[in-house]
Write a structure and sequence with these properties.
single chain; about 475 residues; mainly alpha; Growth Hormone, Chain: A; 18 helices; globular; disordered N terminus
Length: about 475
Amino acid sequence: MDSAAAPVRHGDPRRWKALVVCLVAAFMTLLDVSIVNVALPSIRAGLDASEGELQWIVSGYALLFGLVLVPAGRVGDARSRRTLFMAGLVLFVAASAMAGLAQSIWLLILARFVQGAAGGVINPQIAGLIQQLFRGAERGKAFGLLGATIGLATAAGPILGGVLIQLGGPEEGWRWVFYVNIPVGLLAVFLARRLLPAGGGGRQESLDPVGVVLLGTGVIALLLPFAQERQWEGPAKWLLLPFAAATLTLFVVWELRHGRHAAPLVDLSLFRRRSYTLGAGLILLYFAGFTAIFFIYTLFLQSGLGYSPLQAGLAITPFALGSGAAAMAGGRVVHRYGRALVTAGLVLVLAGLLATLLSVRLAAGHQVALFTTLPLLLTGVGSGLVISPNQTITLSEVPPSGGGSAAGMLQTGQRMGTAVGIAAVSSLFFATVAETSGDWALAFEHGLLLVGAFVLAALALAVFDLSSSR
């Protein structure tokens, strides 16, 4: 156990209170990934924004979030997770205030960049603290609660965004999407200082600046063409992909060489651990499909069927409820069933997607949301059995001293999967709309099939893990 764990001993009830603080911060930062989607029409009206500028509001957050995850996890492991956690919260609150007060679209985009960076600082500290504070079956329960938080934040974003816009009005309601973070974030800072364990790894080794630059360059080059797939016209953007591959290869070579005489940014020996390698690959594929569902479904409901932002958000509620309940239950039993639980979850997700597809074909007009209630509930239950159990299994063999950087690398893979999945699914979605002169239902069906392909690939990896381990 690293020295930072000493202030909170096993059995001390403060560890559960500390976990609540972490979950509040996780919910707030991950909520901002999805809540903005339903606010985009309101932002366009309020700030006279172009489609390309609106895309930067979404992709800018995701780019900076993914960029700083690993370096922030590494600093937290080596220095102080509590200090990094609190600094990230303060920065997130300041950026939220800046976003809410923005009088021009580019000020709002800049605020979203800062928000994304702050979210990337906070999130690896959360997984690192769970590794540090919990052991055995309790760690599974803690990760179950974190998984429930991830699922609820992703699915509840459109609902909360719709409510706030409804209350604030079509032109100014979007500002409250950002203002809501301020009181929550300040309360979390106050509680973090009281409840989170002080200190950190206490190690003073180099933080590997060369590795930081190489990884950051590679991640940006990989994510940028997908994040701007619709706005950056022409094939030139795809030239960044071979550049990203070369840069990330150079990063691996550097880390192997640097690791012989100093602590590397990423401990590549993690990928010799079967649980970590397979878990990271599985969740990358799953997030490529998982997050794209909300993107195309809210577009289908609002642009295709004329739903309001609030109605579109409420239509996703069954998924949120199923995901939250199943994630908590999965966290309690993952130590008993292991990867079989994740495999069962993926099967349920595929069944739910198929049922959703059939429901859209059978439903007429505004009845779509009613017809998809049970299928989305089933999909959410399956998703809850995938995310938190997989994270528990993936990090199960990682020592607590490296929990932050390992979690940061895992979440970077999730961001990469999200960027690739949304780019691929949205391209197919909009291409179908254009080719069919506005058949939004057919576009949603095509997008759902591609989502299912990503989930099926994740299932194949889970089945391989089960069969080869036996």
